[in-house]
Write a structure and sequence with these properties.
mainly alpha, 0% strand, 5 helices, globular
């Protein structure tokens, strides 16, 4: 995944429906699919929050997760992204239909 819009749509989709991570027969996502450290941190947060039982992940959940992971929090604070930015991608409708 190199297209920035695609990466952000995938992140938004995973925040809305993180159970896609368990559908390994349909989706093959790994940390290596994300081109930069910040997106890797976000994917890791989504993955770990899902593994801990989250059914929907909000931007605030990711921020709280980053509070316990100093390198991710430091990078997040240095970027131009904000929680509002991620909230936008969570609100984009999913185009996937089973």
């Amino acid at each position: 995944m190199l297209d920035k819009d695609t990466v952000l749509q995938v992140i938004g989709g995973l925040m809305k429906q993180p159970q896609y991570l368990s559908e390994k027969d349909k989706y093959s996502l790994s940390i290596g699919d994300f081109p930069n450290r910040f997106e890797k941190y976000i994917f890791s947060a989504i993955y770990n929050l899902y593994k801990d039982g989250a059914r929907v992940i909000t931007p605030t959940d990711i921020d709280n997760y980053f509070n316990t992971h100093a390198p991710a929090k430091d990078l997040f604070e240095k970027t131009t992204f904000s929680l509002t930015f991620f909230d936008f991608f969570v609100k984009i409708p999913l185009f996937y239909k089973k």
